[in-house]
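Worked example

This section walks through a single chain of length 287. The input is the sequence exactly as stored; nothing has been trimmed or padded.
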Amino acid sequence: MPARNKKGKSFNPIFLIGIILMAILLFIAKEVFEHYKKGKPNSAVSSDSDDSIHGSISDSAFEKKLAIPLIHKSDEIVKHQAYTLSYSREDMEPYWVAYKLTAWMASGTEKRSGDFREDPAVPTGSAEPEDYKHSGYDRGHICPAADMKWSREAMSETFYMSNMTPQDHGFNDGIWAHLENRVRGWAKQYGEVFIAAGPVLNGTMKKIGRDKVSVPSYFYKVILAPEGNTYKGIGFIIPNKDLHESYYHYAVSIDSVEKVTNIDFFPSLPDSSEKRIEHSFSLEEWR
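Given that input, the structure is written out below as tokens.
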């Protein structure tokens, strides 16, 4: 006979089972929703071998830090929503800006914000928009605004002055913009790319503005893209002037960029893979 409670009513175990099943289904639905919000599911397995070095595609700790160059204790590191930078107090511009760009990010539609302003996250203070006034140089992005059209906040953050460097207008609007556009094309082609870019801050440089912002003679960009179970890389060192050659004319190995900038790129790669990827490149593979 079914069990009875103190008031003599029957207790139905099927009712209890139904409540438990409903709770399980609600928990599963919540987990699926949270996972959907974070982005696409992981599709690769992390490995330390040379032939399979991918972390998971979206959220692995490995890929979150893959674009970040080697950081030293004295570096002034600033982290924003979609990019990280190392700031040079002496030059009032970034040594490097690093970030991951996915196909989805490169296909955004957010409008350009244009809100140039000081970066409150720089402890020692960043340059000001007025530093560039009447200087003859553009406030040139290192992390392009067009790479951050996927988010209003990310777009706005590209206009912090910590992400700006003095660029010749012909350079900024020409070869540099063309390279930025090609990198977005690679993000769509390969699904994701890892980027570090910045000015070459060495030698005697002209200064502009009250904050004495250095005017670089060259800019660099290094890119890492998935290739099967590993990666391939390419670098560029381009003079800060109006140029009419293709950016491919200035393509170099990542090792070459490291020698010029004294920056260690992609240190999260296993040593054997890093050496192979950064030592050489095939230009045809990137056309």
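What to look for: Confidence is low (pLDDT under 50) at residues 1-9, 32-59.
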